[in-house]
Design brief:
It contains four helices and no strands. The protein is flat and about 45 Å long. The chain is an all-alpha fold and 109 residues long. The longest helix has 22 residues, at 2-23. It has one domain (2-104).
Length: 109
């Protein structure tokens, strides 16, 4: 369970870091640019600790899948970016995959 907590913390910092990339306007704004570096450093730190109890492939699938879903939501609400139906359906499939891994895989502690 500790490994999963580390993974969720890594995902949290990845969401902030990725959102900050957009806010940095191609690294032309200082504060969001600094936030990108700090958040991604923390992301990889916590992600590495999650690997003590979760296999690399499964951890990466969960990290990237949940990150994609969260960033899509942030993009929609914060940056006013629209999603078309194929994007929404694809994101739904990602969520289904994350659910299957989390509920049925024996490789997640």
């Amino acid at each position: 369970m500790k490994s999963l907590s580390f993974l969720l913390i890594a995902i949290f910092f990845e969401i902030i870091g990725t959102s900050s990339i957009q806010a940095s306007q191609q690294f032309t704004r200082l504060k969001p640019s600094i936030l990108v570096v700090v958040c991604f450093s923390l992301t990889f730190y916590f992600f590495s600790h999650s690997l003590k109890g979760i296999s690399l492939g499964v951890a990466y699938a969960l990290w990237s899948g949940l990150g994609i879903v969260a960033i899509s939501i942030v993009g929609f609400f914060i940056f006013k970016q629209k999603l078309d139906w194929p994007a929404i359906i694809g994101i739904a499939f990602i969520l289904i995959g994350v659910f299957i891994i989390r509920m049925y895989s024996k490789t997640v502690v």
